[in-house]
């Protein structure tokens, strides 16, 4: 969902440059603007328009008017009264106000006296006004006579308030000046410089704590007035409405936009603003031409009413400027205006800390269709204003996404206790906005406030984008999306033209059909947990949506629901209650039946299962053990049973005591789960040292459960020749037989290597074998090798093998010194096959009891291949013949991939029955089993030989360290959220990812070393540069380079991350076209190092020019990923390259070059020989340079990919959900053109 944050740049656009380019403001005029005051702007025009309407006050029944002459006379009287009591320069006068025709006169009078004002809203909370009075040490308060009693009652005694002078103005309006004796006159930080004379004091909204006081000098606000006057072309004929309260600084802008140009100002009582229809009538009646308002205020009128009365084809509204909230999209604006309406629309952006507006964007209502639903740009900076975008490290950026900062050298406000002068940086004083923007070619695009960027089930969600998508529905008038502290998404919606019977609640409308609409436009992690229908939104005093009031409404509604749902006599969840939560979480709205699965029948996924778990636990008010597992793998009836069994705590405790017992083992205490009574009788006899750990008895082999076929057909149509009636056969005899000896080396996903007991080969020697420059494993006939060096590299399809159904399992590659490698892999078709790496032909196929998602492993002797199955069994098959040697039954599906201990020959595997098993496949017995704390074991175990530990992770969020010999639990680490990622062990640590987006590095003693956070869940298992899974036969030599101390993994945020294994710092990240579920594979390749010299590498140029450095060029060719098409043609047998052309991107000196030449005579450090291959769920296969993260080459498979790739020599083997296993060769340009078999 999100761009790459790692890019850095800057965007600084001082608007003074903009005006100089236009020739509208020269240096002398700019000096006049900077030195001007608010009341000075009014003085310049008041005499010219003495008899014009200055202020119109309309309360819906009566209209009162003050001319410019009357307004100025009243202001003069007010200024004289203040001066007479010694109030002047440096004083801040509190204005306890109510809207009236004389309000502008009060403000002007205070300013003319040389003082500044601080508006105090009588409707504001008492403690808020008390804080403002105290923090500013207010000595004088100006109070309308109508509010004097109210003020004295609330604040008089606490501040020893003493009424002094009073002043009667026109229209029967009088004011009282009150002195607060408890406060002393504050030190004036501006008195020494008239240029920095204070104009007013505002406060921020205080949504993140106590509000900040903002002291605004004239030189900060005057440039706003003059610039917007020019942009909006304000003239004396305009009528400007003040939409916000005086405590919200846009009201100051609106007021002085009118009064500085001789235009008319319209004020209304604040109570009218809460009456949309009455306010709309006043706007139309007074012929308002300039309207500056929050989107919430406009939306309260209703789209139809706005279109029919305010933004008609003959509308007098010249300018409608949105500000204070996220601007509506063009599509939303066009819905609220008549087709031939000529109103100009603007987006104003700013913060109170740099009062008031910082940028302005004129909105093109005739923009391209694809831009209609995009966020509106912030626009160009206003006069004397600087916008700057910074990344998370505080560096200014010009690309990507970051936080916008606003500032200036002259437009500087003081916050809280700041004093003048403030130290200025090169660009002035920059203030943080907490708002995120995206830098585009057209300008800055608003992404959302910090609080609008939330995480939901580990995925980052932009609430602004969710809101925009929902409001694009024709049935929605307006909406607001909020997140609770429990990460619940709440949708508050005003339906469009809802017709209802009297006394009918909107919340009882057709919510189910509305949810179906939402499921059609939102991904599962963005769907709201609750929907509340409202007639109108509650608003704050500033005219914004009152989020606190919405949350209170939600709490009240949920309280009512709990009263209905919770039976008065028993707090047990009923079937109907669960059905409601089930349907809310699942994509399907059909009524769940007892035998329905959340995944299979209701169309749910893992994210929605997490949501359902949270909803059920919230309903019951307590966590429910094993609930997520039950939802994922069992039926509706089982889920309800799980919930009810948890509620009876006493019974549950008794059951636990009767079923479990503590077992003593040397140096450790292990808690295991006893087997069922029916299984006790048939428990296999175990070695004496393990007799205390009772395990499941391995089942006798039932040949009827296993079908084995010998196959002699080509890979492309192997599935058509299967004879499912066969149960035994001779293996296929060909030029390429499966390994019959035991000196094997195994390559598994995540770059895991293992050698069988009889194979003795050094690590470096085996790496050399893996990276053999010959074609080796792919049959090509007798075609001579072309020794010429190619200039490009691609992935070419060499063969494809049809398994019959989706392939989610990862391949196991076994190579032998005297025969070609063999691939072992299973699929959803229940088939498990041995496939020749050379030809793609099946050597044998065994049909198991259910689908296979587990990846296989090879036994320590090299004669058996072991794989888990959905039918709860672990199968042990003869590697040569495919016959079943033994099968072991657990109490749950086995998705975990087994791992073999080459020192003891034990096989470790996890199951969805929450157990980790240690199996002796030769004795056909279970050595020990360990209950893993209540969570299914989805991920694969990993062995750390130096500490004699096997690690396993669970869906309960536990990483458990187990003594691999005894099964004793050493320690556990709890990350609280499910872990699907398989842990990987290095010399000093173990690493794994979690669905909450966190990636952990834990020491072998159980301490967290570091943690890295991605923007979405991590299902991908981490990959370390070659993990040797044999204690004595593959001893890796230490590689101290950064490349060899990194870890690579993928995330559902579409990124592949490379981190330092020592520190957890980000080395690089690469954005894929889709989520990354599979595990990366790190490998070394001489072939990729033999690509021709670069055109843009200084080092290569130096080699080409015999040591004389050539001039570096400004562009470098990258090969990028293209979003896959949904209609891909069938791939030819010998072609896998689907991205023929590479666009040119600007050269970035921090990256390494893409291509390199590396032979026995010429080397340089442009790029190493280490690479990583990664796949996205949409089928993209990408090879990246491990040192830089650059794309080397890529191709597109026709289906989704959940199988992790394996690389051997120059070939990639991977499964795909189009039913095929693919072999792709890494080929240079010269190899692409030669004939294939």
From TrEMBL:
> A biological process (GO) annotation for this entry?
amino acid activation for nonribosomal peptide biosynthetic process
| TM helices/strands, residue ranges | none
What InterPro entries does this protein's entry cite?
AMP-bd_C_sf, AMP-binding_CS, AMP-dep_synth/lig_dom, ANL_N_sf, Beta-ala_Activ/Resist, PQQ_b-propeller_rpt, PQQ_rpt_dom, Quinoprotein_ADH-like_sf
Start and end of every Pyrrolo-quinoline quinone repeat domain?
803-1087
Question: Where is the AMP-dependent synthetase/ligase domain positioned along the sequence?
Answer: 46-408
Q: Which domain of life is it from?
A: Eukaryota
Q: Which Pfam families match?
A: AMP-binding, Beta-prop_ACSF4
Q: Which SMART domains match?
A: PQQ (SM00564)
Against PANTHER family, the record matches this protein to: BETA-ALANINE-ACTIVATING ENZYME
Q: What is this protein called?
A: Beta-alanine-activating enzyme
């Amino acid at each position: 969902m999100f761009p790459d944050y790692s890019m850095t740049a800057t965007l600084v656009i001082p608007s003074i440059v903009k005006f100089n380019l236009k020739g509208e403001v020269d240096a002398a005029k700019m000096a006049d603007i900077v030195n001007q005051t608010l009341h000075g702007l009014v003085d310049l025009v008041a005499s010219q328009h003495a008899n014009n309407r200055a202020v119109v006050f309309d309360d819906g029944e009566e209209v009162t008017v003050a001319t410019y002459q009357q307004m100025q006379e009243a202001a003069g009287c007010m200024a004289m009264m203040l001066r007479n009591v010694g109030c002047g320069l440096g004083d801040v006068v509190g204005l306890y106000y109510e809207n009236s025709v004389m309000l502008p006169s009060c403000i002007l009078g205070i300013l003319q006296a040389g003082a500044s004002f601080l508006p105090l809203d009588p409707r504001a909370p008492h403690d808020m006004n008390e804080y403002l009075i105290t923090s500013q040490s207010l000595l004088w308060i100006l109070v309308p006579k109508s509010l004097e009693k109210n003020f004295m009652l609330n604040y008089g005694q606490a501040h020893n308030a003493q009424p002094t002078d009073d002043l009667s103005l026109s229209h029967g309006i009088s004011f009282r000046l009150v002195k607060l004796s408890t406060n002393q006159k504050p030190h004036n930080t501006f008195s020494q410089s008239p240029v920095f004379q204070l104009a007013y004091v505002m406060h921020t909204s205080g949504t993140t704590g106590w509000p900040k006081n903002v002291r605004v000098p004239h030189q900060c606000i005057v440039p706003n007035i003059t610039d917007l006057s020019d942009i909006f072309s304000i003239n004396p004929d305009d009528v400007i409405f003040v939409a916000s309260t005086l405590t919200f600084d846009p009201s100051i802008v609106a007021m002085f936009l009118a009064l500085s140009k001789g235009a008319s100002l319209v004020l209304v009582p604040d109570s009218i603003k809460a009456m949309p229809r009455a306010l709309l009538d006043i706007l139309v009646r007074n012929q308002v031409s300039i309207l500056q308002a929050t989107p919430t205020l406009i939306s309260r009128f209703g789209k139809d009413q706005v279109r029919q009365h305010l933004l008609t084809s003959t509308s007098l509204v010249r300018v409608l400027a949105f500000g204070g909230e996220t601007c509506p999209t063009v599509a939303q604006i066009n819905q609220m205006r008549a087709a031939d309406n000529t109103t100009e629309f603007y987006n104003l952006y700013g913060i109170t800390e740099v009062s008031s507006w910082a940028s302005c964007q004129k909105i093109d209502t005739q923009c391209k269709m694809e831009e209609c639903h995009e966020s509106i740009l912030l626009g160009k900076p206003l006069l004397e204003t600087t916008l700057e975008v910074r990344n998370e490290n505080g560096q200014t950026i010009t690309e990507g996404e970051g936080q916008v900062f606003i500032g200036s050298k002259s437009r500087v406000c003081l916050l809280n206790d700041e004093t003048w002068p403030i130290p200025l940086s090169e660009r002035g004083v920059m203030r943080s906005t907490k708002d995120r923007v995206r830098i585009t070619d057209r300008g800055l695009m608003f992404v959302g406030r910090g609080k609008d960027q939330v995480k939901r089930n580990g995925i980052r969600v932009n609430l602004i984008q969710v809101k925009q998508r929902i409001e694009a529905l024709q049935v929605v008038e307006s909406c607001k999306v909020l997140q609770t502290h429990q990460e619940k998404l709440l949708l508050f919606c005003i339906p469009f033209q809802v017709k209802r019977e009297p006394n009918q609640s909107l919340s009882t409308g057709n919510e189910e059909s509305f949810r179906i609409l939402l499921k059609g436009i939102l991904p599962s992690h963005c769907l709201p947990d609750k929907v509340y229908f409202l007639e109108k939104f509650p608003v704050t005093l500033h005219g914004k949506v009152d989020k606190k009031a919405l949350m209170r409404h939600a709490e009240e509604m949920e309280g009512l629901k709990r009263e209905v749902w919770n039976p008065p006599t028993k707090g047990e969840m009923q079937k109907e209650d669960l059905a409601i939560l089930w349907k809310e979480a699942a994509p399907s709205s059909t009524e769940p039946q007892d035998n329905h699965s959340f995944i299979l029948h209701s169309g749910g996924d893992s994210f929605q299962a997490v949501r359902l778990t949270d909803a059920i636990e919230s309903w019951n008010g307590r966590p429910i053990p094993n609930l997520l597992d039950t939802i994922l793998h069992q039926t509706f009836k089982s889920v309800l049973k799980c919930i009810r069994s948890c509620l009876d705590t006493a019974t549950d405790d008794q059951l636990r005591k009767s079923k479990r017992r503590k077992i003593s083992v040397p140096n450790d205490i292990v808690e295991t789960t006893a087997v069922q009574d029916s299984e006790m009788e048939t428990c296999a006899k175990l070695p004496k040292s393990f007799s205390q750990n009772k395990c499941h008895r391995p089942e006798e082999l039932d040949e009827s459960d296993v079908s084995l076929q010998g196959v002699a057909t080509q890979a492309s149509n192997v599935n058509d020749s299967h004879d499912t009636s066969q149960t035994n056969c001779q293996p296929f005899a060909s030029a390429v037989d499966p390994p019959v000896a035991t000196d094997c080396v195994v390559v598994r996903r995540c770059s895991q290597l293992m050698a069988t007991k009889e194979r003795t080969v050094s690590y470096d020697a085996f790496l050399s074998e893996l990276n053999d420059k010959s074609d080796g494993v792919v049959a090509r006939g007798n075609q001579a090798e072309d020794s010429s060096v190619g200039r490009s590299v691609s992935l070419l399809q060499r063969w494809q093998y049809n398994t019959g159904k989706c392939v989610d399992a990862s391949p196991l590659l076994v190579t032998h010194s005297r025969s070609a490698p063999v691939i072992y892999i299973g699929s959803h078709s229940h088939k498990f096959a041995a496939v020749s790496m050379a030809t793609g032909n099946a050597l044998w196929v065994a049909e198991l009891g259910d689908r296979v998602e587990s990846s296989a492993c090879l036994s320590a002797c090299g004669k058996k291949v072991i794989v888990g199955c959905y039918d709860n069994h672990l199968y042990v098959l003869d590697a040569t013949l495919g016959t079943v040697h033994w099968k072991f039954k657990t109490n749950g599906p086995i998705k975990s991939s087994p791992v073999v201990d080459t020192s003891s020959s034990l096989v470790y595997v996890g199951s969805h029955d929450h157990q980790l098993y240690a199996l002796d496949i030769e004795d056909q017995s279970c050595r020990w089993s360990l209950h893993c704390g209540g969570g299914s074991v989805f991920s694969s175990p990993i062995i750390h030989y130096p500490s004699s530990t096997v690690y396993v992770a669970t869906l309960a969020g536990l990483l458990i360290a187990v003594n691999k010999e005894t099964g004793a639990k050493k320690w556990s680490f709890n990350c609280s959220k499910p872990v699907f990622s398989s842990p990987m062990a290095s010399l000093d640590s173990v690493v794994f990812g979690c669905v909450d987006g966190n990636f952990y590095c834990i020491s072998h003693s159980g301490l967290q070393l570091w943690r890295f956070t991605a923007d979405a869940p991590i299902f991908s298992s981490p990959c370390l540069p070659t993990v040797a899974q044999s204690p004595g036969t593959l001893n890796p030599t230490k590689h101290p380079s950064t490349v060899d101390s990194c870890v690579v993994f993928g995330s559902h945020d579409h990124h592949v991350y490379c981190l330092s294994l020592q520190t957890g710092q980000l080395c690089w990240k690469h954005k894929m076209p889709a989520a990354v579920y599979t595990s990366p594979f790190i490998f070394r390749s001489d072939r990729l190092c033999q690509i021709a010299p670069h055109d843009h590498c200084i080092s290569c140029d130096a080699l080409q020019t015999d040591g004389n450095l050539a001039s570096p060029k400004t562009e470098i060719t990258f090969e990028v990923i293209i979003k896959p098409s949904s209609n891909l043609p069938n791939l030819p047998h010998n072609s896998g390259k689907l991205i023929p052309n590479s666009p040119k991107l600007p050269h970035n000196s921090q990256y390494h070059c893409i291509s390199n030449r590396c032979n026995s005579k010429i080397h340089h450090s442009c790029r190493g020989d280490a690479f990583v291959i990664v796949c996205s769920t949409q089928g993209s296969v990408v090879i990246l340079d491990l040192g830089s993260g650059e794309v080397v080459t890529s191709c597109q498979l026709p289906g989704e990919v959940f199988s992790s790739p394996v690389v051997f020599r120059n070939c990639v083997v991977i499964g795909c959900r189009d039913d095929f296993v693919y072999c792709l060769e890494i080929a240079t340009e010269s190899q692409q053109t030669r004939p294939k078999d």
